[in-house]
Amino acid sequence: MVTAYCVKCKAKGVTMKDPVIHVTEKGGYMAKGVHEACGTTLCAMISKENAEAAIASGEARKEAA
Hints:
The protein is built from one helix and six strands. It has 65 residues and is α+β, with helices and mostly antiparallel strands. The relative contact order is 0.29.
């Protein structure tokens, strides 16, 4: 379960809908998804371990290179 903070409605720990894992230019991992309640794009910085675990479990997919 990939969670983030919604800036629009100020909700903490929001579960992302259809999260996609991106690798940043500096080598960090970022999850991007949609908040189902308000439709805002969510973004959360996550660790490599959590990113790989989310991809392996099928919760998230990796960005196409």
